[in-house]
Design goal:
The structure holds two protein chains of two kinds.
Chain A lengths: L12 H22 L4 H8 L1 H34 E2 L3 H7 L8 H11 L5 H6 L9 H26 L2 H9 L4 H30 L2 H6 L4 H12 L3 H23 L6 H4 L1 H4 L3 E2 L2 H27 L2 H9 L3 H32 L7 H11 L2 H15 L7 H26 L2 H9 L4 H28 L4 H6 L7 H10 L3 H30 L1
Parallel strand pairs in A: 1-2
Helix pairs in contact in A: 1-18, 1-19, 2-12, 3-7, 3-9, 3-15, 5-7, 5-15, 7-9, 8-9, 9-12, 11-12, 11-19, 15-25, 16-25, 17-20, 17-22, 17-24, 18-20, 20-22, 21-22, 22-25, 24-25
Chain B lengths: L2 H16 L9 E5 L3 H15 L3 E5 L2 H11 L7 E4 L5 H6 L8 H5 L13 E12 L25 E3 L4 H14 L1 H13 L3 E2 L3 H9 L5 E5 L2 H8 L6 E3 L10 E8 L6 H11 L2 H11 L17 H7 L11 H10 L4
Classes of the chains: A mainly alpha, B alpha/beta.
């Protein structure tokens, strides 16, 4: 690392090298795109079916945004503005639903609803089957509403109560106060939450594939399996990437939370206290369906003797568990190293180009999973053939993904570190290596570990890259859950779901506890 | 991170490298277009008996056929097991399959012997219509495919467009009806609200769940399901006599020309048409045996009856999967 050379002008080697390195699969895809301007490419791009796909994708985004808002706003208001016993715990546990992958919720909703569903068996009446838009929207919202809730929570915290009180003194009615004072302050956090959720909806492959609701991300997969990596798949990939890019630009240029000026309001904003019963009712409303859905299905299937009979004759739970860890651990370690390098570059080297590697990582993370998988597959197939569907190839792809997740905590830790120490050490003639080992590393270690845990939790349930890039005969929990659920074998999926939820929730809890501890 | 966790992580990471398979014991590689719940237990028996390890890539048949075509001579696969006979054609024509010894074919029932000697049928299945008898009754002589576009069946029919058996059925339509009629039928089905599912199992469950009332499927998923859930509200019926919907099909296997495990691959093929495996198909997957001396599955239409209902297909010309994909694309189904 070139710590200590930050003031001299020189070509921004590290920024350029890392940006290129990280953008490699994406750049290669764009390069190949040039030669894909064939009749078939444009046929797929503009045919009615594609228009239908875009329409489906947009409807799903809209449905998820509505559901997420309903789920997220009450609880965000509660923990942001009100005080009740246990509110700290609720705040700490709020991100936990993000540990249960959307396709697990899809598995659960599918197995519960319909005339042969769990609800029918337990209660004698049946819900209409949730396959389709409604089920897909529910599964996605249960998974990702915490993204909006956390954004809104911060919005509520930063509300300046003095403004509302002033308006009240001036005789504004309750409604006027809400529309003229409160909402304009909340709007930016709501909007940024919405955009993040829209990016997620665009990117998810598992939920729409299982729910039989065809959107761009799942159609790319269908294109690949029917026509291999041909022009049609390129066309849909380009389309979905463009949509993501528009959202990313909107996110970065849109209205931002008024940061510093009102940040102090958080100290002023004495949360009003609220009756414990009311508070817990709201918590229950937001969180109960999210946790109960997968747990009830899991309890039901694991309680059926027939599940274990089939499991006894044939299963691969242990290989799947080991397979998951075997890819996820090296992938996440690689990711942490990449994140560390990218973090160091942006912290210690000046100039916008050194921010670029981080941006590239963010872009990769935001892309639809199947689109990213296609980029990797094409990259490997044409440049590094042996890496295609190899353990190493999959681990590298996971490493890139994991780096984007680790980057946040690593960066925060790096920026929290004072430059006085590194500057003094340099004055004392210490080498960059020594400075890193003895000063920088001890300070940022907790941040790196947090980033590792956070991204490990995500990487163990990765699906679209696994579908296209894992080596022959590889087993992972995500592939098992997906494979059984696609065949509507909900009982068969149950043991794998259990293992995945156990892993995911323990990592999620661990992350939550660390955050609470650090905050304290 | 404690020292212990670091060591554990390293150990788990490094284990893969240490445990990497040696070349001389490299397992047999099978691309299976048939589902793991069917194939997995059978292969476990094979490994137990012969000591030959089999590594399987499970995926859709069309996807794997396409993959082999793309991989060409560098394919890691030794054997391809397709859900249908149609997928073998393109591989055969591309010269990617190796000719099999005549002894394999002598074991087959005479009427099941294919014209070319590069692939082997291993289990028989027929196309049927699943329906929910609690919600509708079918006419005595069955329905025809073309009946399904009537308003009677609006939003009630399911199909699996990415599934090889469905695609073979479209190949049969192309042969009997010609391209224009087939395209029109597909478009009318779509306009009539036919719902797409990923596979035949999902179709069956969708009828049970009340999502749809009819489905175009292979016959054997139903008896399998009924064996453990006798109250399932699903029944099956052949199509009208002579209708293009009635089609006899076989899951089939071939050895890739690029295989370096030829002898062991032949062992697997021998196993698949052995009495033991054939009985497994009959008893566990309710498919039709392809060799003599094995009883037919009890809960399936008898093959003799069924054959009187099928039109006279030229089975060796059913392998034009490219045409099928093109027509499905044009109908905006794929």
């Amino acid at each position: 690392m070139t710590i200590g050379e930050r003031n001299r002008f020189r070509f921004p080697v590290w920024g350029v090298v890392f940006s290129l390195l990280l953008a490699l699969p994406l750049l290669f895809f764009l390069l190949r795109l040039m030669e894909r301007q064939t009749a078939d490419f444009f046929y797929v791009l503009f045919r009615p079916k594609t228009i239908q796909l875009v329409f489906n994708t947009l409807s799903l985004i809209l449905a998820v945004l509505i559901l997420c808002t309903v789920l997220a706003v009450p609880i965000a208001y509660l923990i942001g503005r009100r005080d009740f016993r246990g509110s700290r715990w609720v705040t700490a546990l709020l991100p936990l639903p993000l540990s249960i992958p959307g396709y697990v919720i899809a598995w659960s909703l599918l197995s519960m609803s319909g005339e042969s569903g769990i609800i029918k068996d337990l209660f004698g009446f049946s819900l209409p089957s949730l396959r389709g838009l409604v089920g897909a929207a529910l599964a996605m919202s249960f998974y990702c509403f915490p993204i909006l809730a956390i954004n809104m929570y911060q919005g509520f915290r930063e509300l300046d109560p003095r403004l509302e009180e002033a308006a009240k003194t001036l005789g504004k009615s309750r409604g006027e106060r809400f529309w003229q004072i409160t909402l304009p302050q909340l709007w930016p956090s709501m909007l940024s939450g919405w955009i993040l959720i829209a990016i997620y909806v665009l990117s998810d492959f598992g939920v729409p594939a299982l729910m039989g609701f065809e959107v761009l991300a799942s159609a790319i997969y269908t294109e690949i399996i029917t026509s291999y990596f041909q022009d049609g798949a390129f066309a849909l990939t380009l389309l979905s990437m463009t949509m993501t890019l528009i959202l990313l630009v909107a996110f970065h240029t849109g209205p931002h939370r008024p940061q510093r000026r009102l940040a102090r309001a958080a100290d002023l904003a004495r949360p009003y206290s609220i009756g414990n019963n009311t508070a817990w009712f709201i918590v229950f409303f937001s969180l109960a369906p999210v946790f109960a859905t997968p747990l009830v299905s899991l309890g039901y299937w694991l309680g059926q003797p027939s599940t274990w009979e089939t499991f006894g004759t044939y299963n691969y739970l242990v290989p799947a568990l080991f397979g998951t860890l075997q890819f996820a651990l090296p992938g996440t370690i690689l990711g942490s190293l990449l994140a560390l390098a990218v973090g160091l570059i942006s912290r210690y080297l000046k100039g916008w180009i050194h921010e670029l590697p981080g941006r590239v990582l963010l872009l990769l993370y935001s892309l639809p999973g199947t689109a990213l998988a296609l980029c990797w597959a094409v990259f490997y197939l044409q440049l590094f053939r042996p890496l295609y569907q190899s353990a190493t190839g999959y681990v590298i792809a996971l490493g890139y993904l994991s780096a984007s997740l680790s980057l946040g905590p690593v960066r925060t830790a790096l920026h929290a570190q004072s430059e006085t120490w590194t500057d003094s050490a340099r004055t004392l003639g210490k080498s960059p290596r020594e400075i890193f080992v003895r000063i920088v590393w001890p300070g940022i270690k907790p941040g790196v570990v947090s980033g590792f845990l956070l991204s490990l939790g995500w990487i163990i349930r990765e699906l679209p890259l696994a579908v296209l890039l894992t080596p022959l005969g590889a087993r992972t929990l995500s592939l098992a859950v997906f494979g059984y659920t696609v065949e509507a074998n909900y009982a068969g999926a149950a043991p794998y779901v259990f293992m995945q939820m156990a892993l995911g929730l323990s990592l999620g809890l661990l992350s939550s506890l660390r955050r609470t501890r650090d905050a304290a | 991170m404690s020292k212990f966790t670091s060591i554990l992580l390293l150990a788990l990471t490094g284990w893969k490298l240490v445990a990497a398979p040696q070349a001389e014991t490299s397992p047999l590689v099978l691309y299976s277009g048939r589902g793991e719940s069917l194939v997995g237990p059978l292969l476990a028996r094979f490994t137990q008996q012969t000591g030959i390890d089999v590594q399987v890539r499970y995926a859709g048949t069309p996807e794997l056929a396409r993959l082999i075509l793309e991989e060409g001579a560098s394919s890691p696969a030794d054997i391809f097991w397709a859900q249908d006979i149609g997928s073998m054609g393109p591989l055969h024509r591309a010269g990617l399959l190796t000719p099999l010894d005549g002894s394999f074919f002598q074991k087959l029932l005479p009427s099941f012997r294919p014209e070319v000697a590069t692939w082997l049928p291993v289990s028989g299945r027929v196309r049927v219509l699943y329906y929910n008898p609690q919600k509708l009754s079918l006419p005595q002589d069955g329905v025809s495919l073309k009946d399904l576009t009537s308003p009677n069946y609006r939003n009630r029919v399911g199909w699996a467009p990415t599934n090889a058996s469905f695609q073979l059925s479209v190949a049969a339509m192309l042969q009997v009806w010609g391209r224009d009629q087939t395209l029109r039928w597909l478009q009318e089905m779509k306009a009539n609200g036919a719902r797409a599912y990923a596979n035949n199992t999902a179709l069956l469950e969708a009828i049970a769940a009340g999502e749809i009332d009819l489905a175009l499927s292979n016959h054997y998923y139903l008896p399998r399901a009924l064996a453990s859930r006798p109250n399932l509200p699903v029944a099956s019926s052949a199509f009208k006599t002579g209708d293009a919907g009635n089609l006899l099909n076989f899951s089939s296997v071939g050895i890739l020309r690029s295989s370096r495990n030829r002898q062991r691959a032949e062992k697997l093929l021998e196993f698949l048409i052995s009495a033991e495996a054939q009985r497994y198909f009959v008893e566990n997957t309710f498919e039709y045996p392809v060799i003599e001396g094995i009883d037919q599955p009890r809960s399936a239409p008898t093959i003799k009856d069924y054959r009187t209902k099928t039109p006279n297909f030229d089975y060796n010309r059913l392998d034009r999967i490219d045409d099928v994909l093109a027509v499905l694309r044009e109908a905006e189904i794929l």
